[in-house]
Amino acid sequence: MPGSTLTYVRTAVAALSLAAVGTLGVPAAVAAGAAPEAVTAAQACPWDRGAPPSNLNPYSTTDRAADTAPVRMGPYGDCTKVTSYSAGTSVPVNCYVTNSYGNTWSYVRGSGWVWDAHLSNGGSPHPCRF
Questions:
Q1: Which residues have a Cβ under 8 Å from the Cβ of 35 and sit 6 or more positions away?
Q2: How far is Cα 95 from Cα 50, in angstroms, rounded to an integer?
Q3: Greater confidence, 72 or 19?
Q4: Measured distance CA(22)–CA(32) in Å, rounded
Q5: DSSP assignment of 89-122, as one string?
Q6: What pLDDT sits at residue 41?
Q7: Phi, psi torsion values for 93, nearest 5 degrees
């Protein structure tokens, strides 16, 4: 029966199902209609190498956060912040990279990257191998 409640419900369920399928693979911020600035900041992260492999970087050094030390998805301030360390907190760093701005960033295994300027002793002394 066209125009019946059952037809309306079926159409609504189908539309919702297609909408859900259409957003698979899209970042949650985009799917939820986040502000354009949030998407731009995430896209501005030029890091595409991922994490340094642990078998090539078996190092472990402990440093301390000199101030609030944000941990990011890549070694750039534009990369998404994952968490942060409070001032004075021990930070287990493994290796470091120098980004395109000449800033060194230390890798915290399983978490992300900390700008060495936020660390009391300058971060890891070991360059990352990829």
A1: none
A2: 13
A3: 72
A4: 13
A5: -EEEE--EEE-TTS-EEEEETTTEEEEGGGBTT-
A6: 56
A7: -105, 150
The neighbour count for residue 123, using CB atoms within 10 Å, is 25
Cβ–Cβ under 8 Å, residues 129 and 95: yes
Can you read off the two tokens belonging to residue 71? 């941990």
> 114 — phi, psi (to 5°)?
-120, 130
CA distances from 11 to 8, 23, 110 (A): 5, 19, 44
Residue 43: per-residue pLDDT? 73
Q: What confidence tens digit (pLDDT) does each residue in 17-40 have?
A: 333 333 333 334 434 454 555 555
Task: Give the torsion sign (CA, 59, 110, 121, 74).
Answer: positive
Task: Specify the pLDDT at position 108.
Answer: 98
- Distance, CA of 101 to CA of 130 (rounded, Å): 20
Alpha-carbon gap, residue 89 to 120, rounded angstroms: 10
The pTM of this model reads 0.69
Q: What is the dihedral of CA 63, 67, 69, 70, to 10 degrees?
A: 180
